[in-house]
Amino acid sequence: MKQNIISTSSIRLPNLFIFLLSLTMVCGCGDYLDLVPDDVPTMELAFNNRQNASRFLYTCYGYMPQAANVQSSPALETGDEVWNCYERGFYYTNQTSYAIAQGRQNASSPLLNYWSGGNNGSNLFIALRDCNIFLENIGNVLDLEQSERDRWIAEVKVLKAYYHYFLMQIYGAIPIIRENIPVSADPAAVQVVREPVDDVIKYIVGLIDEATADKESAMPSLPLNIRSQDTELGRLTLPAALAIKAKILTLAASPLFNGNPDFKNFKNEAGKNFINPDEDPTRWEAARDACREAIEYSIKGGHKLYEFDDYLMYEVSDTTMHELTLRNTITSRFNKELIWGLGDNGVLDLQSLSNAPLTAWHQGHQLGDNRMFHNPTLTVVEQFYTRNGVPIEEDKTYNYNDRYKVFNSPAEGHGYYLIQDFRTAYLNMYREPRYYAWLGFDGGKWFNMEATDDKSSFGVRAKANETAGQGNENFSITGYFAKKLVSYKIIMTQASSNIGTTSYTFPIIRLSDLYLLYAEALNECKSQPDNEVYEYIQKVRDKAGLDKETGGLVETWQAFSDLPDKPTTKIGMRDIIRRERLIELSFEGQRFYDLRRWRLSFEYLNRPIRGWNVSEKDETGYYRETYIFNRKFDIKDYFWPIRQQDLYVNPKLIQNYGW
Predict the structure, then answer these.
(1) Which residues share a beta bridge with 431?
(2) How do beta strands 626-629 and 609-611 pair?
(3) How, if at all, do strands 458-459 and 445-446 pair?
(4) CB 131 within 8 A of CB 161
């Protein structure tokens, strides 16, 4: 760790600004981020005027992990939500996050190493060092208005909190980098130690409290919303800071860090547990209050659940309009539901990996435009509700036992999301609106701007040797596509001879996430659920188009579920809220963290990865449940290893349990 702790007096700027070349999504003006070369400025020059200081501010933002990058995000391809066609590695090789999913994480050269850097992970302790440099020196800038100085300080404090939080989610106990250690310090002082998770959480929350202490003032340091979408998109706001705090305190209250017996023998040298094995139910009260406050300020800042507001060249059905609301919640760049999302790095590639070829011309241009490697698994496909808004295994009206059998697509309203007179699995029929908005599959419609009207949307044909099937250079290994991540504006026409790309800001936190966290915290604070618990999950379900016939989820379960009283019990409602999160936030990198904090990764990630038998041409062979990979997860996998070499450099560090 010694290499990560440096003095801030009379030093030259570190050579870490190359990353900023890709940071135009934080500030639309490229010149604003054009930093002075490494061989010119000293630290005094870096903070001698507003312009140079602003460059260092964006340096602090520049370490943000790329949430939409499948190879560097810990959350997109390391679990069971998607799988990819690994045998076609010549055209797409993911040797980091996908390798973790295959069980190849290790301590000698850790994959996605965000501790000390390497294997598509960046050293976030350098990010913390630079945040400290900024906070120590920003007071030296003379031509900076105090209000702007206060804003920048608040932003960097929240960034510093977020980097600690990100590391804690992956590694558990971490060193707290309160301030940089001078080079004149005793060598023993440089050898930092991992601190118990409870202490880390307390420190992180304290930083955010400092940054938001003036939230009730007329002009708080952090604004309620960004002032210019063109130049400030991605910068932290008051709602974003409070939302991060809400997520941290919910994590602190969750079973991973609140009464976890799996790590009861994992202690520091003083014998103190890194993770508290004793449950404290009052932590849910802190999470509840933080979620409520975050929602309050989000509403004040103008955030609301998204409703489609783009211009279309022709009228579409209510069904298609609702689908566009659901799809554009993610792919609309300027979106009131988005509380915080930083940049579009990886989004274009992610869309290419999720897209499906819909015509013969698309098929011929697939290598760059629709590579089809980011494929939802059958486990995730089956988690979506029926059209009645309850799980498929609970719905009294759903033919669950025959879900893998093939039937003709029903005529009743399916013309907009199923190819008419097409034979497909019953699993693809009578499902909720999010199923059809967010999943592509054999026999499913895929609306985009190439359609002359929504009834003429292209359909997906994914059996072997078909347009989107095996026999192409790339194909979906499961038979499904993550349509949710692909903008409806993407155009792939022969006339244009290329893909019409469109970008968006990948969400880190959106309002639906907060509503569901609040419902979860409320439920955990009560002996049994009540209308307050139902209210916030209902907001999400109403947007999804559920419970229209019954008026609410309680009535829906009574009318359609084999477990009619499930929403009336704390345990039953806990299961409903968790299922709602897994559906609503699917493919957004939330499932990875939710399964961990609920201590359910061991259960879910030891199940086989499943899909259709995509090598078959006929329906009988294709629609067979197929085991693709035997996924394995051990208790030690809840926290990733520290590189062994880092333990040699700093003997005071303790390796994570099991590694």
Answers:
(1) 386
(2) antiparallel
(3) antiparallel
(4) no
Segment (H or E) for 481: strand 480-481
Closest by alpha carbon to 605, among 638, 651, 654? 638
Residue whose structure tokens are 């399964």 = 595
Q: Is 203 exposed, middle or buried (0-12, 13-18, 19+ CB in 10 A)?
A: middle
Residue 279 phi, psi dihedral angles, 5° rounding: -70, 140
**Alpha helices in 280-335, H assignment, sequence order:** 283-300, 318-331
Which amino acid makes up residue 364? G
pTM above 0.85, yes or no: yes
Structure-token match 């496909």, residue found: 381
Bridge partner list, 472: 470
* Residues 177-230 pLDDT 10s: 999 988 777 777 788 999 999 999 999 999 999 999 999 999 999 999 987 777
Q: Which residue has the tokens 């009379």?
A: 10
The CA distances from residue 287 to 243, 246, 519, in Å, are 11, 6, 11
Strand partners, 273: 267
Residue 497 has pLDDT above 70, yes or no: no
Distances (CA, A) of 544 to 348, 367, 437, 573: 26, 33, 10, 18
* pLDDT digit string, tens, across residues 3-62: 333 223 223 333 333 233 233 223 333 322 233 334 335 788 999 999 999 999 999 999
**Which helix H or strand E contains 440, and what residues bound it?**
strand 440-441
Tell me which DSSP letter residue 385 carries. B
Neighbours of 55 (CB within 10 A): 19
CA distances to 127, 241, 340 from 215, rounded to whole Å, are 26, 11, 18
Q: Are 38 and 17 in contact (CB under 8 A)?
A: yes
Contact call for residues 92 and 67 (beta carbons, < 8 A)? no
Decide if pLDDT at 175 tops 50.
yes
Question: What sign has the CA pseudo-torsion 61, 347, 80, 77?
Answer: negative
How distant is the alpha carbon of residue 357 from its chain centre?
25
For residues 256 and 258, give the distance between their C-alpha atoms in angstroms, rounded to a whole number.
Answer: 6
More confident site: 357 or 615: 615
Structure tokens at 390: 């309850």
Query: Beta partners for 441?
Result: 480
∠ CA 440-480-415 to the nearest 5 degrees? 30
- Residue 183 β-bridge partners: none
CA atoms of 399 and 378, how far apart (whole Å): 17
Helix axis angle, 124-137 to 50-61, nearest 10°: 150
**Cα–Cα distance, 137 to 148 (Å, whole number):** 15
Counts for the chain of helices (H) and strands (E), in that order: 24, 14
Pick from 5-19, 152-166, 506-520: least confident: 5-19
Backbone angles phi, psi at 446, to 5 degrees: -140, 95
Rg (CA), the chain: 25
More confident site: 410 or 529: 529
Answer whether 356's CB lies under 8 Å from 441's CB: no
First to last CA, the chain: 19
Tokens for 45, please give them.
């020059």
Across 93-132, b (16+ Cβ under 10 Å) vs e yields ebebbbbbbeeebbbeebbbbbbbebbbbbbbbbbbbbbb
Contacts 24+ apart (CB under 8 A), 222-227: 222/151, 222/154, 222/155, 222/158, 223/151, 224/297, 224/300, 224/301, 224/302, 225/301, 225/302
Q: Which two tokens stand for residue 412?
A: 């009743």
